[in-house]
Amino acid sequence: MKVVLDANVLVSAAIQSGPSYRLVARWLDHENLDVVICPAVLVEVERVLDRPRLRKRVDPGLAQLYMATIRRIAAVVADPVPIGTATRDADDDYLVALAREHGADWIVTGDKDLLEWEDQTPPAITPAAFEEVLTRLGG
Fold first, then answer.
1. In angstroms, how far is CA 82 from the centroid of its own chain?
2. Alpha carbon 42 to chain centroid distance?
3. Of the candidates 79, 88, 136, which has an alpha carbon nearest to the alpha carbon of residue 115?
4. Could you give the strand order of the β-sheet that contains 75-76, starting from the edge strand earlier in sequence?
5. How far apart are CA 27 and CA 38, in angstroms?
6. 59 phi and psi, to 5 degrees?
7. What is the pLDDT of residues 2-16, one digit of tens each?
8. N- to C-terminal Cα separation, the chain
């Protein structure tokens, strides 16, 4: 199954336990997930993890190791070709473009603008709901 993980899922996984953490841990532990990530997502995650208040929660060395692991395991592809407005928040449109360009089955996100997006092609789903999908599929 091919998925796009939003930066908020990757950041959440780095700083707290919960559905995002479990999902990313399953993937990094070789779950049968094909995660597509582009440089824009990676830069956003690194920028957020480098904020002073998050550096208190995630050691910078561990954040670097986390990012290196993601780069090694994910299918890192070029940033997508921009598309017209797809969601209420134009800053999220690149995730839609990335998912469509690479045939993703899901966009996993905690972002309401994506979760409430009318088109839902491909569908956006929360990490908790995606965990349920994986469980139903025997993952």
1. 18
2. 9
3. 88
4. 75-76, 34-37, 2-5, 106-108, 124-125
5. 17
6. -55, 135
7. 999 999 999 999 998
8. 11
User: Is the overall model pTM greater than 0.90, yes or no?
Assistant: yes
CB of 45 within 8 A of CB of 69? no
Residue 5 is inside which H or E element, if any?
Answer: strand 2-5
**pLDDT, tens digit (0-9, with 9 covering 90-100), for 103-112:** 999 999 999 9
Q: Which two tokens stand for residue 74?
A: 């994910």
How far is Cα of residue 32 from the mean position of the Cα atoms in its chain? 16
For residue 24 the two structure tokens come to 């990313």
Can you list the domains of the chain with their CATH numbers?
2-134 (3.40.50.1010)
Is residue 31 within 8 Å of residue 73, measured between CB atoms?
Answer: no
User: Residue for token digits 């070789």?
Assistant: 30
Give strand pairing partners of 3. Answer: 35, 106
